[in-house]
Design goal:
There is one protein chain. This protein is mainly alpha-helical. The protein has a two-stranded antiparallel ribbon. It has a domain of 85 residues. It is rod-shaped and about 120 Å long.
């Protein structure tokens, strides 16, 4: 058994059957149609039900026509991005970069070793003289 949903369009209440689980979609669509019907009735006053539904449906269809164009544009842009992503994924890995780290020249190392040896010698000499 199909569930029945109560919807309101243009101040009129309708009971509509739909597939189980589709109630939310039906109510959303009905709300969109109701918005158009309210604009129509505010401009023209009360009109016969059939005419109100027809006019509201036509107004809604006219407004949503631009949505289809936007959707096609978004789908095309998505396809472009997916192609770019696939190209990046299938591209070879970049060559590793060679980074040179400066090294301490041998003569500086030798000079530092000499200074360290002199400092140790001075420290030993001071210890001898002070008796420490």
């Amino acid at each position: 058994m199909m569930p029945e949903v109560e919807i309101e369009i243009g101040g009129r209440v309708f009971e509509v059957a739909c597939q189980d689980g589709e109630q939310h979609f039906l109510q959303t669509a009905a709300k969109m149609l109701d918005n158009e019907a309210q604009v129509l009735t505010s401009q023209t006053g009360r009109i016969p039900e059939a005419r109100m539904l027809l006019m509201a449906g036509l107004m809604l269809a006219d407004r949503t026509g631009g949505v289809e164009d936007k959707l096609r544009d978004l789908e095309a842009r998505l396809a472009e991005r997916e192609a770019e992503l696939e190209a990046l994924r299938s591209a070879p890995a970049p060559e590793p970069q060679k980074i040179e780290v400066p090294t301490i020249p041998a003569e500086v190392s030798e000079t530092l070793a000499e200074l360290a040896a002199r400092a140790e010698a001075l420290a030993a000499e001071i210890e001898e003289k002070t008796g420490g």
